[in-house]
Specification:
This protein has 9 helices and no strands. Helix content is 69%, strand content 0%.
């Protein structure tokens, strides 16, 4: 389609009609992720610890699985700016889509954070990903943990989701399992966001961005490294589109 024809449809030059569907999926998917993943922490705090450490991990893994099977065939169900950038770096997402993906993901997260604040009130730091200073976890330690978790998650995403040689129908289960395991084990310790969008909404609702850099820098670096590690270990090839 020519840029002139695209403009006639009310889209920016260079855009395609399916782009808005993709952005919509990323917005709704990220909203759902943050609403339920952060919401589990808020509800746990509000109800006096009824969910424990396992509950938020299970909920995070399950909602990611649902989002993947619902939106994966449309947008890829990234729901994560760091993942979108990493996918573009290895040729599995067109760079022209990255700004729209990131904006949709971050907007969905902010809306979810504010909805949680309105619906449930200010409990559990609004489900924000934080280093656990009470057990001696410093911001640097949390950053290194976050980097490793994001590295592993991206390696799995690429191995089961981007790689066409993998068993595609089971990709959502594998990715959801990794997210759930990481959140259950490291969520109470270092936050375990693996995702700048997962972290943003709760930080906006909480009104304190002191540690937000951890959950931006860690996932961005970790997922880029994970993407290139997959390319090395699996001989991954570029499939931009």
């Amino acid at each position: 389609m020519s840029d002139e024809a695209t403009l006639r449809r009310g889209l920016p030059a260079g855009a395609r009609p399916d782009d808005l569907r993709r952005y919509g999926c990323e917005f709704i998917g990220t909203f759902s992720l943050v609403f339920f993943a952060a919401g589990a922490v808020v509800v746990d705090a509000k109800m006096g610890g009824t969910l424990g450490a396992i509950g938020p991990g299970l909920i995070s893994g399950l909602i990611i699985t649902v989002v993947i099977y619902t939106f994966g065939h449309v947008s890829g169900a990234h729901v994560n700016p760091a993942l979108s950038i990493a996918a573009a770096l290895i040729g599995h997402l067109d760079w022209r889509l990255v700004p729209g993906y990131a904006l949709a993901q971050l907007a969905g997260s902010v809306l979810a954070g504010m909805c949680l604040l309105w619906a449930l009130g200010d409990y559990g730091a609004m489900g924000a990903n934080l280093p656990n200073a009470a057990i001696g976890i410093t911001p640097l330690t949390a950053f290194l943990i976050e980097l490793f978790l994001a590295f592993l998650l991206m390696w799995v995403v690429a191995g089961v989701g981007l790689d066409k040689r993998a068993h595609g129908p089971f990709a959502g289960v594998a990715v959801g399992a990794v997210v759930g395991i990481e959140v259950m084990l490291m969520g109470p310790v270092a936050g375990a966001a693996m995702n700048p969008a997962r972290a943003l909404g709760p930080y906006v609702a909480m009104g304190d961005f002191t540690h937000y850099w951890i959950y931006v820098a860690g996932p961005l670096i970790g997922m880029a490294l994970g993407a290139y590690a997959w390319r090395f270990t699996h001989g991954g090839r570029e499939r931009t589109g």
